[in-house]
Structure formats: structure tokens, C-alpha cells
């Protein structure tokens, strides 16, 4: 009887009327901003067209590629003194950013506004690794915020495929940000310290103000030029990322906003149950303290995502899920499952970004990107724990699903159980989560929003 009810719940995610998924109306906040819009009801103060948005993204990618290349190749710089594993992290990061730059310029005809950049004169010198990491964090945070704002604007311009592709890129930038924080080897908070990726810009071209110092020479700056492909390949060496992940393509799907919200809530509930089970497992005490913080912060982040969804109209997900018997007794099994689940979550949110854009919901697409980046951080830190030589191993985040119904089908073993997923696990309560997270939770981040006078609400749903 229990398993039958689980399967019935699964079916509601892909085919039931919206009344079965959420109440007759969304919350006050959600209704105010997120009710379905038509083109005539949506307006924006942002004026960027598609090509200038791509040009701006290409400029940032030229900047970051030059930044990582210069760090790796500066004679007698800090790079030579880094542990070999840290060197691989940075080489792979360069490879991914160079892929992004080439994709934007060669496949999307983007043209950067600059290929010569300026950094403090000693930024890559020996003894300045900590300064480099601060700049890394600032640049990746800038890139993420730019791409998030661009996804919303592309949604307004009815560019659903480009929205998802920029989501694939921003997820990798989130991995780079968290890898930089991992390299810092700091005390708490954990490298994955943010509940959501920061959406700092209302319009993407606001990034220009933060880019300006890197585009203008100063009294204490040195000049760095965008490298050639040959030079990048030499700097990357054998630390190449997987460049075979395909960019998103046009999808024809039927899911409504409410169906997507319900699916996302289920995914987050699975994540909560999974990370809580890992923290309660015997192998948790055997992890290093920083690795314990990764999982504690991840649990809090999944909790924050679910709470946001529930507060804004998502239906309540089940309170019990199924996992392989060794998921919480064997460390290797847990970490393998971590990567599997996070890849599912990442792909699901990417699919949601395109579908939200198709539905005329660009703000929802941006918020999906804010959550997506955090899931990507979980994926890469899981690979750090498991000792992968290249945790940040992808050029693009995997968009494995065409429609959300595909994601729901992939989650079915965790919802209803199957021959491999036979161990029931109950979703923890808020009090249990608080005890498990302790003081190692995430830092609150504002959710992307648009003032009411820009997105005109419907009178009725």
C-alpha cells in the first residue's frame, strides 16, 4: 500500500491537475511576481539585446581565462610552489573558462569588448596566493551574477535555449568559486557557504562597473593579454576537463509552473534526507572536519531551497524516500550516490530554466539558476571528498533531461523504491536538521526579485 501511494504521488508530478500539486493560489509573494505572464504584461528597464549580452559574457570569460593563464605561467610565481593537486584544479579551471570563451565567440558570434586586462602588479607573484584567491572569488562571483542577470534578460527576449546554456556555464563558475574557497583551506564557514548563488545585478550591464578596474591601467597594475589556444593548451597540460557535454537544445515540453515547483520540492526533500543520512552515518566521524562542514552546509542549503519552494507555492513532498542499503554505511557508496543525485538535480534545474522561459517566467529561470549553482558546488565538493584528481572536471554542467518528466522518472527509485533502492529513510524534522547542521550552515542570500511596477501582476490566477 505504501509503495503504491508513492507511485501515485509520482504520477501527480507529471500528469495531475495543478490543484493536486499546489493550492488554488500561490503564496502572496509568489502571486505578486510569478504568476504566468504574457508578452504584453512583461516589461523591463533592462535594455540589453541578445548579442550585447553574449558579448559581455565573452568579455568576462576572456578576463577569467587571462587571469588563470597568468597565474599558471608567471615566472617564479606562487603557482610553482602549490601542491600538485591544487595546480590541477587551476589548470582545469582555465580549460573550462577557455572552452566557454571559444563557445561564445565561435558558436554564438560573441565579441569581447577587451582582450587586454590589468591586474595588480604582484597578483601572481610568489607569496601572493591568498591575494590571488580573493580576486578569484570576486571574479567568479561577478561572472555568476552576470550570467544570472543575463538569463533573466534572455527570458524576457524569449531565448529559452540560451537561457539554459548560460545556466550550464554559470554552474561551472559556481564550481570554480567553491574550488577557490577550497584552495584557501580556511576555517568555517565551509567553501559552499551560500544558501543561493548571489544575483547581484538587476540588469546584466551593471557588471561593467565591476569590470572597469580590470579593463583600465593604473599606477600599480601590470598588463596581461588574452592567450592563444596553443598557449592555453600548453598551460592546461593533461588537466583537461570533459568538453563533450553538449549544450542544451530546443525542447518541447508541457509542464506547468506548478508541476515544476512540485518536482523541485521532491528533489530538495530527497537531498535533505540523503545528506542527513550521511551526517548520521558512522563514516561521517572519519571525515576530516572541513569535509564534515561540506555536508553540513549542503544539508542546510537543501533545507533552505525546500523552505523557499514551500513558502512560494510548492506542494509538500513525501517524508520518506528509498536508498541503496549501503548508502549510509559505506563511504564510497554514499559519495557515488552523491554525485548521481547532484547530477540529477543539476540537470532538472537546467531543464526548468528553459521551460520557465518558455512559460514567460524569466525571474523563475534566474532563481532556478541561483539554486542550480549550489547543487553544482555540492557535486564538485563530493568529488573532492572522494579524492578525484579533477573534481572540477566538466566544461559545461550536464543537461541530461529534455523535460521535467524525464527528471521525475529518474527520481522514481528514490520516491517509490526499486530492486536497488530498498532502504527507507525518513526525512528529518527541522529540529533534527538544526542539530545536524550545528553552526556550519549557509549564509542567507537574497532571492532574485523584480519590483512590482516592472512585472505587472494578474488580477486573478
Protein architecture, described:
- The protein has one domain.
- Helix content is 57%, strand content 4%.
- With 461 residues, it is mainly alpha-helical.
- Helix 5 (84-107) runs antiparallel to helix 7 and helix 7 (160-184) packs antiparallel against helix 12 (331-358).
- The chain has a two-stranded antiparallel ribbon with strand order 1-2. The chain has a two-stranded antiparallel ribbon with strand order 3-4.
Explain briefly what this protein structure is:
The protein is mainly alpha-helical.
Descriptive keywords:
disordered N terminus, mainly alpha, single chain, about 450 residues, disordered C terminus
Quaternary organisation: single chain
Query: Treating each run of at least 4 consecutive H or I residues as one helix, how many helices?
Result: 15
Sheet having the most strands: 2 strands, antiparallel
Order of helices and strands: HHHHHEHHHEHHHEHHHEH
Strand share of the residues? under 5%
Shape: globular
Radius of gyration: 22 Å
Secondary structure class reads mainly alpha
Q: Averaged pLDDT, please?
A: 90
Q: What is the strand tally?
A: 4
Number of self-contained structural domains: 1
Terminal Cα span: 36 Å
Strand order of the largest sheet: 1-2
Helix proportion of residues, in percent?
55-70%
Ranges with pLDDT <50 over ≥5 residues? 1-42, 452-461
Amino acid at each position: 500500500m505504501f509503495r503504491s501511494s508513492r507511485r501515485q504521488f509520482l504520477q501527480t508530478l507529471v500528469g495531475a491537475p495543478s490543484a493536486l500539486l499546489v493550492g488554488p493560489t500561490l503564496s502572496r509573494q509568489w502571486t505578486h511576481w510569478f504568476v504566468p505572464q504574457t508578452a504584453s504584461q512583461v516589461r523591463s528597464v533592462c535594455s540589453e539585446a541578445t548579442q550585447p549580452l553574449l558579448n559581455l559574457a565573452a568579455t568576462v570569460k576572456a578576463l577569467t581565462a587571462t587571469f588563470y593563464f597568468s597565474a599558471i605561467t608567471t615566472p617564479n610565481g606562487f603557482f610553482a610552489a602549490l601542491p600538485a593537486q591544487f595546480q590541477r584544479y587551476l589548470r582545469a579551471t582555465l580549460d573550462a573558462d577557455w572552452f566557454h570563451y571559444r563557445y561564445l565567440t565561435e558558436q554564438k558570434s560573441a565579441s569581447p569588448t577587451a582582450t587586454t586586462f590589468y591586474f595588480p602588479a604582484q597578483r601572481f607573484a610568489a607569496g601572493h596566493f591568498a591575494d590571488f584567491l580573493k580576486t578569484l572569488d570576486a571574479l567568479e562571483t561577478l561572472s555568476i551574477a552576470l550570467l544570472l542577470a543575463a538569463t533573466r534578460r534572455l527570458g524576457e527576449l524569449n531565448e529559452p535555449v540560451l537561457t539554459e546554456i548560460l545556466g550550464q556555464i554559470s554552474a561551472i563558475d559556481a564550481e570554480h568559486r567553491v574550488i577557490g574557497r577550497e584552495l584557501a583551506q580556511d576555517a568555517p564557514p565551509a567553501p559552499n557557504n551560500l544558501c543561493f548563488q548571489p544575483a547581484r545585478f538587476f540588469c546584466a550591464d551593471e557588471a561593467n562597473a565591476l569590470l572597469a578596474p580590470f579593463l583600465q591601467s593604473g599606477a600599480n597594475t601590470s598588463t596581461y593579454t588574452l592567450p592563444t589556444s596553443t598557449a592555453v593548451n600548453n598551460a592546461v597540460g593533461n588537466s583537461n576537463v570533459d568538453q563533450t557535454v553538449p549544450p542544451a537544445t530546443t525542447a518541447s515540453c508541457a509542464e506547468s509552473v506548478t508541476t515544476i515547483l512540485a518536482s523541485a520540492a521532491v528533489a530538495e526533500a530527497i537531498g535533505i534526507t540523503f545528506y542527513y543520512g550521511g551526517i548520521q552515518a558512522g563514516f561521517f566521524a572519519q571525515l576530516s572536519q572541513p569535509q564534515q562542514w561540506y555536508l553540513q552546509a549542503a544539508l542546510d542549503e537543501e533545507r533552505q531551497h525546500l523552505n523557499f519552494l514551500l513558502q512560494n507555492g510548492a506542494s509538500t513532498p513525501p517524508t520518506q524516500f528509498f536508498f541503496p542499503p549501503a548508502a549510509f554505511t559505506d563511504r564510497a557508496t554514499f559519495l557515488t550516490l552523491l554525485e548521481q543525485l547532484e547530477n540529477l538535480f543539476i540537470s532538472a534545474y537546467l531543464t526548468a530554466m528553459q521551460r520557465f522561459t518558455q512559460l514567460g517566467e524569466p525571474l523563475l529561470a534566474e532563481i532556478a539558476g541561483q539554486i542550480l549553482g549550489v547543487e553544482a558546488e555540492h557535486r564538485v565538493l563530493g568529488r573532492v571528498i572522494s579524492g578525484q584528481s579533477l573534481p572540477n572536471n566538466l566544461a559545461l554542467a550536464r543537461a541530461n533531461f529534455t523535460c521535467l518528466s524525464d527528471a521525475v522518472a529518474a527520481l522514481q527509485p528514490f520516491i517509490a523504491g526499486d530492486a536497488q533502492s530498498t532502504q527507507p529513510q525518513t526525512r528529518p524534522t527541522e529540529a533534527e536538521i538544526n542539530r545536524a547542521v550545528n553552526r556550519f550552515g549557509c549564509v542567507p542570500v537574497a532571492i532574485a526579485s523584480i519590483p512590482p511596477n516592472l512585472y505587472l501582476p494578474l488580477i486573478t490566477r
